[in-house]
Fold:
Amino acid sequence: MIMKTQTAGAYMVPLGEYLTVNENETINNALRMIKDSLHKKDNGGAWLGPRLVIVLKDGMKPTGMLTLKSILKAAGLRMLTGDVFFKAESFSWYYLNSMFAGSGVPVREVMRSLGMPSVEYSTTIYQAARIFVRYGVNHLPVTDGQKIIGILNSRDLFYGYYELTRFMLDREAILNRASDPTKVANGYAAL
Amino acid sequence: MTITATGVMIPIEEYPAISEEVFLDRAAHMLIENYRDKGGTWLGYESLLVTNKDGEIVGFLSLRSFLKAIGLCDPGNDNWFLDLVFSRRRISNSTWRVKNFMCPLDGRTVRVNDNLDQVIRIMMKNQVDSVMVVDGDKAVGVIRVIDLLWFMEELL
Structure:
């Protein structure tokens, strides 16, 4: 039987607790919101708040999330506009250049979709950990049926697991559990 | 003025480090202590540097490293029948050491004089949250994604 504390949903942050931004908003405005979000939990002090904002379509429907990595992606795109080889060889340069020269990059161009990968509320923490590793992400949308109800971040899962077990890996019991020790020895979890 | 990696990095002597021979439970405890100290002050370190027996830095132990370990602890994976049929080998206790879960430094280094564009390029190319700043062969600091946040407006 799976206890509630062993489900990924128990460690998620409900969608309503995140700041939101419209998908047509510029990335610069969204960046300011992420900074506000970081200070949300500590009255302007430490960076304990969420490191992402939820992106809404038409101010209503959640369609994506904007993370620090999304901001890096936007900075990477800006660098491409200055790349002479990219300018010479790619039609995309005209599109990117007009975005940066104009009113700015809209959030929808660099946000991460709320679709796959995601986890169900009842997914175990072990399965969720494997999904984080497999996709190389720090945040996963949590669904209840078709509806997205929150976001699970890898930090909360780690700290939740630590509270649960003090990370005392039950070494004797675990001897039986991993499927491919050679992969582990090379630093890759058996997925 | 162009900002270089040294202007953003956390000096190496301030960053928490752990030996590659240590078990993960101790490493997890150390990471928790370096996120917040006993007084509740936020320190914010979300990875540890890993050192070898000679004290050289050989990799990062990140949250993802711990998630790999959590993924392996799934009670649902326990299947003695499959172990028997496919002769699956058993993990020894020593596997749960830091060195088997850390991420090596390959491709995660920037030079002290590199500008922030180069730092971002390395982070994006390797899909990592932190990079090591090196001066020649010597590691001098670490830059995390969050350290770049305050310079992003100039880069967009």
Remarks:
- DSSP finds six helices and eight strands in chain B.
- The two ends of chain B are 16 Å apart (CA to CA).
- The first strand of chain B starts at residue 10 and ends at 11.
